[in-house]
Amino acid sequence: MAHTSIKAVIPAAGLGTRFLPATKAMPKEMLPVVDKPAIQYVVEEAAQAGIDDILVIIGRNKNAISNHFDSVPELEEKLKDKGDIDRLHRVLESSDLADIHFVRQGEPKGLGHAVLRAKAHVGDSSFAVMLGDDLIDERDELLTTMIAEHERTGAAIIALMEVDPEHINLYGVASVESTDSNGIVKVNGLVEKPKAEDAPSNLAVIGRYVLSPNVFEILERTEPGKGGEIQLTDALQELAADPDGPGVYGVVFRGRRYDTGDRVDYIKAIVQLAADREDLGPALRPWFKDFAANL
């Protein structure tokens, strides 16, 4: 069933400086994770949750993203003529996932600014914000739970994950209180990259949000913060602090998440996903064991 009232917004205008020189001419979202670009996993996740209207926020030199989700008749014809139906299906799949739109961010002024660029397209709809650095395993449920919770409460919903205290300083961390629903917490505030001793919990914000369009009004008057960027976190803080609003709730995710925003974690993501695949795993797993034994 399609969530016709819910749209998805995928910010993809970042410079990808951690992956230079690979990202000098290629968007970081197009870096392959096994045999698909990272952003395709995110689009597939949205489609599997019933979302058929997706807006990708792109920057300059990001045309490769729109090209990837477009049809390529000459390639399709060639594969058809060769009888390579499996590869043809995989090429067509990326073009048929959803109705995908693109808008430029212009200057990359932070996540809040990127989300604000979606205002005209989103209109009066609720929408999911999905960051391409966080890949959620298709076997684990997250986005559908977040959408259901948003529809039930009208609140802003964020995804949270338990993180080892020694790594908590790398994340935004939520101050929470429990609710009657298992795996759902009320968010009272957010702290950006706290020291372990100052962290209000071990629940870190990961890159999935389900928001109402009223967030645009807040973002429009949010002053730029650190680095001259407009932060989505500041808008969420305001929503959490509003005593008359529906507030902010967190869905605690305990499934498999792959972080592709860091070089080491990107390599780990490829290894984990490849090892789990039926077509690659049987050949790779014994090799991994031999390789690890000889380190």
UniProtKB/TrEMBL annotation:
A Gene Ontology molecular function term of the record: UTP:glucose-1-phosphate uridylyltransferase activity
Gene Ontology terms: biological process: UDP-alpha-D-glucose metabolic process
Assigned keywords, A-Z: Nucleotidyltransferase, Transferase
Annotated EC: 2.7.7.9
Reaction(s) catalysed by this chain's protein: alpha-D-glucose 1-phosphate + UTP + H(+) = UDP-alpha-D-glucose + diphosphate
Gene3D superfamilies recorded: Spore Coat Polysaccharide Biosynthesis Protein SpsA, Chain A
Signal peptide: none
Protein's organism: Microbacterium trichothecenolyticum (Aureobacterium trichothecenolyticum)
UniProt protein name: UTP--glucose-1-phosphate uridylyltransferase
